[in-house]
Amino acid sequence: MSIRYMRASLLATILFSPCWESLAQAAPVEVPQAVRDAEEKRIEVMKEVAPSVVAIFSVGGGGGGSGVLIDADGFAVTNFHVVQGQGGFLKCGLNDGKIYDAVLVGIDPTGDVAVIQLLGRKDFPHARIGDSDEVRMGDTTFAMGNPFLLATDFQPTVTYGMVSGVHRYQYPAGTFLEYTDCLQVDASINPGNSGGPLFNMQGELIGINGRISVEKRGRVNVGAGYAISINQVMHFLDHLKSGRVVDHATLGATVSGTADGTVVIDRILESSEAYRRGLRRDDEIITFAGRPIRSVNQFKNILGIYPKGWVVPISFRRDGQRHDIQVRLMGLHRRAELAGGSEEGGDPEGPPEKKPGDDPQDPESPGPHKQAAKPEIPEQYAEMYEDRPEFANYYFNAQAQARLFKGIAAWGNFAEQPVGWSITGKLNETTPVQIRMLPEALAGRFGEQFAVQELKNDFADLPAGSGGFLAALEQLKHLLADPKDYFTECYYLGSEPSLETGDRVDVLITTRSLVTSRWYFKRDSGELLGFDTSLAEDVDPCEIRFGELVSLGPVRFPQTMTIRYGDKPFGVLSIESLQFFAAPAPGGKNP
């Protein structure tokens, strides 16, 4: 007797049995009201957030991905690999059935994140930002997007599931791509979902979908999808809105696990700030950025969510004694490497057998013939894209710089003043200070200590132990009087937490030869709060924080300057006078 015949006989017996007949005639099961209420709530939440979901179309219309709006001005987050190679402008659809022009803003090739801005409105629907650190394994979640380009009417596809894991680490794919501290979900994520939102059941955005685990026969989800945590995205958001190709951070050290379960420093660069703060080989890492470290994977996870240049607290143990330090993180890549890497990239969906572009049916891989297509540039928005090395779109950086320089204007018009400066005051209320600043040299008297810096020479740590206070004042002078002529580089970096308050501050970067300065601005008012000046890349900066601005003759100037070098205070300079004078002719005498 064949197996097929046996199966058919068994099925017939079941269907014609009295039990089956009575089951078919049974009264319908009453669905509990709580179940129906939960279903209705779920439907309402999904309906509420759907307008924020973006369908992104590649050049030529043969592929695409997804994104999510995060503010009313049209800024949206997506994956880097969705916009890679698409040029400065894209076409995007929302569930109102309309197609919108969009412009590329900034990219993060390492973290696989990009920001674009949809154009044509100032009242875009947008998602509410959640807290991915509050997400727990087992939480219910849902993903939205445009898998396989199914949403021809721009109504997003929704898939429902739960959080399978948190703080997952996905090893780099290709040259740069690395998913750290990400969320693992079983909600179906397929090609085309990339860049789309992952929501919790309160309708809050908790992640950006990007990667999937796939079966060997093709790029089909097998129940393991990965989303970039929204907290990581928010750390980088202002950096991305700066129009730059942004970099991730490194400690300047590697770690390894021990047999007793601790994580210790394996190797460390002597040029790193971590080394200057006292971290050494074999030190045990207790916490990093406020989170306990129990494995190498955990360390990589936490390190990967921070941009280059952020300061984080680190606790370590040596010989049984705990030490607490603050360290500014180094860049993960060299600048030239990062700029070149923005054009690279592996396959962000996992390790398929084919390379992106090999399969013309793959909606996320534009393929060589699509890459060759020229993006359409909307005439009314053409000025919103400016191609420049190391920037994804310099236009947005120029806009941010203009906003910050409005804050500097509150100091007065220094450009109209004579080039010579004379500053008098007291250091720590007792030590008299006199500083003269000329085009050829800077001279300072700090009590009985004299310091002279000839400007034809490299800047030095003068006065000694300040980290280069005279050099820092020279940078301030030119920022106020002639920044475009003096600095070889000037750009908006993004925002980072203030060392003093923890509040976010906007950061402007300027360079002159080897000297780099970081200028800190209050985000809501544009007030210039202070700056750090480093005489070289691998030395501690002279840190200066301003007191209240007061009127000193034709301009306004800080009443006090608090000066630090490394982890030690140098002093508080109280400014008594600022005078301007014409510089003498070459070979002449000072007035």
Question: Could you walk me through the main structural features you see in this protein, from its secondary elements to its overall organization?
Answer:
This protein has 591 residues and is an alpha+beta fold. Helices cover 18% and strands 38% of the residues. It is built from 12 helices and 34 strands. Strands 25-24-23-22-34-33-30-29-28-27-26 form an 11-stranded antiparallel beta sheet. β12 (204-214) and β13 form a beta hairpin. The longest helix has 17 residues, at 33-49. The protein is elongated, with a radius of gyration of 29 Å.
Write the layout of secondary structure elements.
Elements: H1 3-15, H2 18-24, H3 33-49, E1 53-57, E2 64-69, E3 75-78, H4 80-83, E4 89-93, E5 99-108, E6 113-118, E7 128-129, E8 140-145, E9 157-173, E10 177-185, E11 197-200, E12 204-214, E13 221-229, H5 230-241, E14 249-250, E15 253-257, E16 263-268, H6 273-276, E17 284-288, E18 291-292, H7 296-303, E19 311-318, E20 321-328, E21 330-331, H8 335-341, H9 367-371, H10 394-408, E22 420-427, E23 431-437, E24 441-446, E25 449-454, H11 469-481, H12 483-486, E26 489-497, E27 504-512, E28 515-522, E29 528-534, E30 542-546, E31 549-552, E32 555-558, E33 560-565, E34 568-581
Parallel strand pairs: 7-12
Antiparallel strand pairs: 1-2, 1-4, 2-3, 3-6, 4-5, 5-6, 8-9, 8-11, 9-10, 10-13, 11-12, 12-13, 14-21, 15-16, 17-18, 17-19, 19-20, 22-23, 22-34, 23-24, 24-25, 26-27, 27-28, 28-29, 29-30, 30-33, 31-32, 33-34
